Amino acid sequence: MLYVASIQRATAQLDAIKADWIQTNVDCLLVSKLNRIQVTKIDLDGTDSDGVLHSSFDVQLDATIAAIATVKLAIDKPSSLIVLTTSHQLFTLEYASKTPQHPVTTSSVSIQERFATRAELQRIVVDPDRRLILVHAYNGQLRVIPLMSAGGKSTSGTTKNRRFSKVDFPDAPLTADLALDLSRSYNLRLDALNVRSIVMLPSAINSISSPTIVVLHSDAHGQQTVALFQVDLEEKELEPGPETEVEDAGAETLIPHGHQGVLVVGEQSIEWVSQMPFDVRGKGKAKEVGSSPKRITKCALPVGNVKAWTLLPGQKGQYLLGDIYGKLLRLDVRGDSAGRVQSLLTRDLGDASSPTALVCLADEVIYLASRFGDSQLIRLLPSSPNNELELVASYPSLAPITDSCVVRGQSGASSHLVTCSGAYKGGSLRVVRQGAGLVEMADLALENVQRMWAVKNDAGAYGGLLVMSFFDETQILDPDQSRTGDGDEGISEVQIPGIRSDVQTLLAHTSGNHLVQVTASEVVSVSAEVTSTAPTKAEWRPAHGLQITLAEADGNYVLLALQGGEIELLDVCEGQVSHVASLKLASDVAAISLARLGTRSVAVVALWSSNLVQLIDLPTMGEMSSHMMAGGYLVRSLLLATFADSVAHLFVGLGDGSLVSFIINSTDATFEVESQKSARLGTKPVTMTQIIGDDAATTSVLVSSDRVTAISRQSDRLSYSSVNLKGITAMVQLHSSLYPGAIAFASPSEVRLGRIESVQHVDIRPISLEEDEPRKIVHSVRARSFGVACLRRDVDRVTGRQKSSSSFKVLHDETFEVLASISLHPDEEAQSLAVLDDGENDRTCFILGTALIRAAETEPSSGRVLLISRDAATDSGYSIAAEVSVSGSTYSLAAMDSLTFVAAINSSVTVYGVGQDWQAIQPIATWGGAFVAFSLVSLAKDQILVGDALRSLTLLQLERNSQNGSAGSSRLVEVARDYSPHYVTAFAPVSPTSKEFVGAESDLNLFTVAKDQTHNSRTSQAEIELVDQGRFHLGELVTSFNSGALVHQFDEALAGVATPRLVFTTSAGSVGAILDIGTETSKVLSELERNMRRVMDSVGELRQEDWRAFRSERQVATSAGFIDGDFIERFLTVSTSQVERIMAGGNEHERITMTSDELMRIVEGMSRLH
């Protein structure tokens, strides 16, 4: 069975709105991200990105979001959030402060129509006069949700006289409290198909009309029409009004402008269409010809498809528009005193990301949500004559991912993913690494730093110092003391009189305004005055000349470990060094740690000989509890940390790179042995430091072995996140105003100062290719380079003609330096890529498949296959070594060996051979049984798996002749076929040796098939079949599968239980992992998934089993063969009472026999594998 889980959730932002959903009259930003809603608080007093948008959380849904909107039901209460899903479940949510990620579902209803056609435009429209809500989900149909007064009366305000569009009595006031009941909704027939945009107009002041709807739609001939309708809420009818044709065929957007009319935004122009009186008819009467709406004015636009708009507050009649290429325009609508539009003026503000939504957060601050690139926070600068846009912040996105490749780490390093991301002007390569990234602030050329301490004393002559200990010396740096000249600007070395710089330091600590230094022979406390010539100095030395081996400090206490197993406690208060107590232990001390545990001070001590870990009370030096560590590796480090939720964890680092953690009871300082957890973080001895927040609580623990890992506590459990640093020997959190939030990391060659932005996300690094969009990518391990197929799209803003050009680039796989760039023919586009690596002859060749795109052709009829290799004679660069023309588009390529590759060309599959010198290409065998051969995978033993647009998967066998190379001498034979009607978009074998294949199809499902050998009774021969194994609804379009994993560390307890197999990417910017799990684990996790469905409440009354059910136009089937990892891992966040109910199940047969702690450990381990 396969376990599917997210590495990075969808980053495409499909919509964004601003509303007071959390707190009354305090706006927040709500962003729709496919199957979750990101909620971000807005601080308009902030001057930067961190100050404007902060405190985000996600509301996870078991469905794909089609549309969102908010409605204000009561003036003194927050707004309600309305959500429509692609499965046509409609529900309303209210914020819950105790469970922000699980809001209260106040109403939910299914509006699914079995025989209706799903509309391309899914939209929720709220009446500005708070009378109704419209939902457009199906062609030719509107769902009407009347808003009722708190007493249950409709706020329709209509009269029985349907001959008049205006009422004779006032409607409910806008301040009245309303009730929203989705069960009262009903359908109305809409006489308009192919709806492009739909809006509602407000009523004129002191004159309330029936709710007015304006629809932009197109007919079968592509003619765009603006149609007006009014809703009779009492009769539950939709009354048609006047219509007008729109000249701009590219019109897709309506903007309501007051009650007078709408702005129709097209590709080349904007025009205003006014609202004229309705020709209202009685029942059964034919439609009379009335006066058409009058087109008041019109203005030209720079050609581009406008995708988003927002009204600029404080600027009467001004709008901000954004087109698909990222062009931002200011639209100034000028009218007369009666509200009639007199002129339309546009002004080019500049370029940004391609928007899907624009939200005005303040007068000049705009949030731009994008599905084709990074979302942005932009400030408008109207006073600046040259630059009218200022980028305040950018929010990385991977969407849409068109292709990807996994680069496997060397020498134990973790692998990383390189994606072809973005579209239009926002395309780039993205390097995705598991864990957090470091924002580097400074780099110091200091070698062989062994340990570091950040000491702080606001009362002294310095704010914060960095003390660094080398093998035989000590240096002190002041990050806030600026210096210029040679060296590193901003980092200055200082001298503290009385502090020895000619010896190795074991500990540096501050107490009051005194600096304490511990060396192997003494403890020194000096006045913290940098310029003092006669410092106040106190000293302490061990008796009998014993060596100090370890030292730790907390507050005024300093604990020393001496030779022979003795520990000494000193008090360094007020510049004095006095002996407090001592304790003789059974053997020498291996590691010590001092910390606060509740209201007491404690020491944690580990011994060399017995691997015993003891908790000792300070200052009495009495033993409180102990624990014997199992295993044969010695304890090398200890750290006792209390997190923000007041839970204390003891971390024990072992010599083999393992980290063991315990919860320590703060009341009696005892080990909670059942809480013990072990994780393998590397192979080198573990060192640790803690990051302290402003509230003096531990926010995270940094652990270094082969690489750095950040450990935080979230949702009552420890969360491990890799930091992309390796070879770190020491690390410490700084106290510096010049480098706020910085951490110093020492390696054998340097000291780096940087800030870890987040310990909960993957690290995304963009690699710009200027305005080229990367479309396909392959990686050559031997050449240490990437081959990238690029597309550049330029639009003529006058004629609207789009000009495309393609190129192929070779980039270095570490520096991303462009090593070569080859332009393709005009109108030729790169379609596929593969790489031939010839290890025997130490050479690499890239294979590029293209298609010639002609506007008159529905399917490409010609293209090329190119061999691109380095010039062997001069080694000067890459060039086209050989090419062959093909009759169609080369949709996919795959290498079979160093001299053979296979190509999918329209409906055929052809195997090509290349010459020994890679200077010639010739076909070997061809198979023409596909509808559209869209993808290929080369398997062992000359087998090829073909993904078809309509015919799922087909297994082919290449039968070579002895000469292996003459044209037509070999043949491709169909061995087996999957007869399910899947439109395959990507697929891969579960593992290189597996007989099981996982595929993705256009209906957003995953499926698996397996090779099965059967006996044909008719022919008495063995045959191979592709047998259906599993099915699962992912809800996203998969664009690539890659063998491997991004994690570099595995929990040994999961060895043989779960193995990461594949990394996949989607068009929505998701990165996911597929793990192969054993039979027993599959059984337990399947039982857990079943019981969780029964117990856990779902947002919007959505059902997880419905969400993951395989669905297509022809069938809906329960998921099988897959475990929903994202859902399973919610088990780590549930309450104790829910855990008990989940373990018990619905009856005795559903009870899970494993203990909850054992099950929790398995799920935690699974979460670390992706």
TrEMBL record:
It comes from Microbotryum lychnidis-dioicae (strain p1A1 Lamole / MvSl-1064) (Anther smut fungus). It holds the Pfam family Beta-prop_RSE1_2nd. The keyword Transferase does not apply. PANTHER family: DNA REPAIR/RNA PROCESSING CPSF FAMILY (PTHR10644). It is found in: Nucleus. It comes from the Eukaryota. Residues 440-756 form the RSE1/DDB1/CPSF1 second beta-propeller domain. One of its GO terms (molecular function) is nucleic acid binding. InterPro entries: Beta-prop_RSE1/DDB1/CPSF1_1st, Beta-prop_RSE1/DDB1/CPSF1_2nd, RSE1/DDB1/CFT1, RSE1/DDB1/CPSF1_C, WD40/YVTN_repeat-like_dom_sf. Residues 16-394 form the RSE1/DDB1/CPSF1 first beta-propeller domain. This is DNA damage-binding protein 1. Residues 806-1132 form the RSE1/DDB1/CPSF1 C-terminal domain. The lineage of its organism: Eukaryota, Fungi, Dikarya, Basidiomycota, Pucciniomycotina. The keyword Nucleus applies. GO terms for cellular component: nucleus. Keywords: Nucleus. SUPFAM superfamilies: Calcium-dependent phosphotriesterase.
